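Re: the 312-residue chain
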Amino acid sequence: MDYNEFQDVIRERILTDWMDDGEVEVSEFYKNNGQKKVAVYIMEAGENASPAIYLERYYDMYQQGYEIPQIIVLIRAEYEFKIRNTPQNIPDLDDYEKMKGKVIFRLVNYEKNRQFLEDCPHIPVFDLAITFRWISARNSEGMASAVVNNRLMEVWGVSLEELLEAAMVTTRKLFPPVIREMSDLLGQLADMERGGKQLLREGEDPENVRPEPGNALYVLTNIHGTNGASTLLYESLLADFAVYADSGFYILPSSINELILVSEEFVEDPRDLFEMVSSCNKTVVYPEDLLSDSVYYIDKTSGKIRMLKRSS
């Protein structure tokens, strides 16, 4: 069967095999950078939300020979795991005063997310856009979040400025920044792959992590190593680091997860950096993780960040 037929079969089997009372919906939507996904949402009686169960990998399993009953068992296991770790009823969702401490922001590429941005509050910055999400759950396994869309923004009755102010505080609190030398960070990433949860050594204060100045390459992200490019907008973070390192920096958007800082002392022609970023985005970065092909610059004297022109 093709993918559309597979989706219909999965929906019907969930309804008949283990749903006593509830709703099952299969929806197509766009994730970051217009990457299209299909998910099944399972809402049992009394629930007002559902975790997304993405179907692409289950269709791949079907094509590899898995039987539908086996796939239903795996979907149910994923659903029950997410139900245990993510509350499905959010009683305070419409109350902004109770929710504003859960709002965070993320940076995405503006052009590649135009369709998505039509349905959610956002703020253009350079060739990027600030978007907002609310934390629905936090535990030892990580965090779950959902998009702040236009409907929710209208219910909350707040301005973009108010939303940004709240998100700036919460994002920095939950996702503290970490700046490390490139070589040091590679070791930390290896530690994470061996079971670590964050890019922070025991006892370290993320706000006080300061690599030795005088190096050519640094990586800026957050302690979780996800959506770390948002640190670009943390108040005075890069300006303070430029003063500490006594150097201006070229800022390369490695992905939505991190930024590479290149000391201006080691760059002969900034135009070469554009080719570097573009090449990495085409060959190394997953399409859904791409942030931008641009290059930015932080001036150590003014502390201002600007986007460079390719001709500069």
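DSSP finds ten helices and 13 strands in the chain.
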